[in-house]
Specification:
With 142 residues, this protein is α+β, with helices and mostly antiparallel strands. 35% of the residues lie in helices and 39% in strands. The chain contains 3 helices and 5 strands. Strands 3-2-1-4-5 form a 5-stranded antiparallel sheet. A hairpin with a 2-residue loop joins strand 4 and strand 5.
Length: 142
């Protein structure tokens, strides 16, 4: 038996390639590959949806309408991590949202910066400026 024949024998015995210890993948290996593929598809989908929304917003007209602040809310996300050295770290992220009601009675919720969130209160009236789903600003009428 020459060296090449030994390689072929080793390949079929699981030493020269294939999945695990056989030529055919096991259920766990197939499952792991499928999970990886699903993860990649979801990641690509998120990028495509975000890009489409950005393009749609950019192609929308900039509108300035009379509106009233009808609601404010926050979304707080906590994160903690345990490092091998016994050190625990934690952090939080806060997103700020405001709901505006226009003259027609329609309501729109936008993500806003913390500085604007703190300066406006429910009941404030003014001019809301937006482009698609993108919040551009609110000028309060005094």
């Amino acid at each position: 038996m020459d060296n090449r024949e030994g390689y072929i024998t080793d390949f079929y015995n699981g030493y020269g390639g294939g999945f695990g210890n056989s030529l055919f993948p096991s259920f766990v290996e197939i499952f792991m590959i499928l999970i990886f593929i699903v993860f990649i598809i979801m990641f690509v989908r998120i990028i495509v949806v975000s890009a489409r929304q950005g393009i749609k917003n950019s192609n929308s007209p900039v509108l300035s309408v009379d509106a009233r602040v009808v609601a404010k809310r926050t979304d707080i996300s906590y994160h903690s991590d345990h490092v091998d050295d016994g050190i625990d770290t934690s952090s939080s992220s806060t997103w700020y949202y405001m709901t505006f009601e226009v003259e027609s009675g329609d309501r729109m919720e936008f993500s806003v910066m913390s500085s604007e969130f703190g300066m406006l209160v429910e009941g404030d009236c003014g001019k809301l400026k937006f482009q698609g789903t993108r919040y551009l600003g609110f000028v309060r009428q005094i």
